[in-house]
Amino acid sequence: MNQPFYQQTGTTATVQAAGDTPPIPEPVVLTPEQRSRMARRAGQGIVRTLVAQAFMGLLAIALSAWISGAYAAASALIGAAAYFVPNALFALRLLLGLMGGGNAGALSFFWGEAFKLGFAVLTLAMAAMANTGWLVWPALLFGLLCVLKGYVLLLFFRKLP
């Protein structure tokens, strides 16, 4: 049954038979002003996310210190730093790319995310292998979780980019 179907592109609707190939859409061309505005908004979003993650990390450290003392605060610091440090480095690289006018490709995102994951796993493995005796694992995981969920703060205040 070759029933025609309707495809809406932009403001025009076209009718195609079921076996026809759809037309290739034209690429979107941005003006330099639009490109600059998008880069500025992306940079603001990156900075907002880093600030929210830093705030959540500091909150986790303060709560851990208040509830369980200095060892828990140090453990929460290790957990927060396990994700915040590589994320801040990756964000810095993205910001420098935005300021330089370059485009970030999928491969640079892949390697950035792989770096963040590898650094976090390496930090947690080093904390486990150090076996210091003072490491408070719930506080470490609390610090890590707070930084990982820093964007929830942006959701709460409706400041997501």
TrEMBL record:
Q: What GO cellular component entries does it have?
A: plasma membrane
Keyword terms of this UniProt record: Cell membrane, Membrane, Transmembrane, Transmembrane helix
- Which Pfam families does its entry note? ATP-synt_I
Q: Has UniProt tagged this entry with the keyword Isomerase?
A: no
- Composition bias, Low complexity: 7-21
Subcellular location, record wording = Cell membrane
Q: Does Ligase count among this protein's keywords?
A: no
The protein's matches in InterPro entries, at most eight in alphabetical order, are given as:
ATP_synth_I
Where this protein primarily resides, as one coarse class? membrane
The transmembrane residues are: 45-67, 73-96, 108-129, 135-157
Region Disordered: which residues?
A: 1-25
* Membrane topology qualifier: Multi-pass membrane protein
**Source organism superkingdom:** Bacteria
What name is this protein filed under?
A: ATP synthase subunit I
Q: Which organism is the protein's source? A: Alcaligenes pakistanensis
Lineage summary? Bacteria, Pseudomonadati, Pseudomonadota, Betaproteobacteria, Burkholderiales
